[in-house]
Design a protein that fits this description.
Elements lengths: L4 E4 L3 E5 L2 E5 L1 H11 L4 E8 L2 H13 L6 E4 L5 E7 L5 E4 L13 H9 L2 E5 L6 H17 L4 E5 L9 H8 L4 E5 L2 H9 L13 H10 L5 E5 L5 E5 L3 E4 L12 H14 L4 H16 L10 H9 L1
Parallel strand pairs: 1-4, 1-8, 2-6, 4-5, 8-9, 9-10, 10-11
Antiparallel strand pairs: 2-3, 6-7, 11-12, 12-13
Helix pairs in contact: 1-8, 3-4, 8-9
């Protein structure tokens, strides 16, 4: 079976003050893609424990396939403590050495990634060497057998889980890049031996052009800017979408919803401006609800943008 989207990486429980909610960036993106009507699946690893079995039940209840979810007999399912400030902004504390640190390369995963129309992955799951190598192998087979596929790298620079070599290696196999405005200068320092070589540490055309030049496979970059909206650019087009007036409940998973919107617009072959507006709307909508994976009528929202 060929999928519209494979989410490759972590699946976990976000432990919020009000209770646990399914999370993990690739899992969140796949969840919203499924709500948008895409044929999506998650390639991840959970523990052989009660939290893992509960995650599996949750995935099944959403209607997502589970055959790409590995079970680890030794490492636990990931539990993440989420601390929210007064504005709803989140701080995360991750379980060390959890199940998704041991992602294993398998023929099933390689075949799924080789034929998928898009893959979403991040940097957090690459903190473990085995998982890093597995993710690179999946990206490499996608690049070789489906060169037109969208390989979206949603960088998640959360200290202390920042590995320059893993990030640069991923960028070489990436066709699309998403990050936030605080992460942009950090990324520039990683990819440029002399940061003074960049025209600016802010996201603008000149600095984007430097990154495009360094990574030939890269086709577009999205930088989210919180209440100020987002910027989305290709090698020849630049779109800025203003922020929305919304009541923020929490920001958990808002960026992942934005990623789902970007992938959806790309697969629908929408113009860049429409894709940017849709992704921005999706991110804002999720931030107005609790947790990363609220159940929302996203196909109806997409239909409004089709008009």
């Amino acid at each position: 079976m060929s999928y519209d989207l494979i989410g490759l990486g972590e699946l976990l429980w976000d432990c919020l003050p009000e209770g646990r909610v399914m999370g993990g960036a690739p899992g969140n993106v796949v969840f919203h893609a499924r709500q948008l009507g895409l044929n999506a699946a998650l390639a991840t690893r959970i523990g052989d424990d009660l939290p893992g079995r509960e995650l599996l039940r949750q995935v099944k209840s959403i209607g997502l396939p589970t055959h790409l979810i590995q079970v680890d007999a030794h490492r636990p399912t990931s539990l993440v403590t989420v601390e929210l400030d007064q504005t709803g902004s989140a701080k995360y504390v991750f379980t060390p050495d959890c199940a998704w640190d041991g992602l294993e390369q398998s023929p099933l995963w390689l075949e799924a990634c080789a034929s998928a129309r898009s893959i979403c992955f991040g940097s957090l799951a690459q903190r473990g060497k085995r998982s890093h190598q597995t993710i690179l192998s999946c990206l490499d087979v996608s690049r070789e057998r489906s060169p037109a596929a969208c390989r979206l790298f949603d960088i998640n620079l959360r200290a202390p889980h920042i590995d320059r070599e893993a990030i640069v290696a991923s960028l070489r196999l990436t066709s699309a890049l998403k990050l936030n405005e605080d992460e942009w200068p950090l990324l520039m320092r990683m990819v440029e031996s002399s940061p003074q070589g960049f025209p600016s540490t802010t996201f603008e055309k000149a600095s984007a052009e430097v990154v495009f030049e360094k990574f030939p496979d890269l086709q577009w970059i999205c930088v989210t800017q919180g209440k100020a909206g987002l910027s989305l650019c290709t090698r020849g087009e630049w779109i800025k979408v203003a922020g929305q007036t919304i009541q923020v409940v929490d920001t958990v998973g808002a960026g992942d919803a934005t990623s789902a919107g970007l992938i959806y617009g790309h697969l629908q072959q929408w113009p860049l401006e429409k894709t940017a507006r849709f992704a921005n709307t999706l991110g804002g909508l999720v931030s107005s609800h609790r947790g990363a994976t609220p159940r929302l009528p996203l196909q109806q929202l997409a239909a409004q943008f089709e008009v």
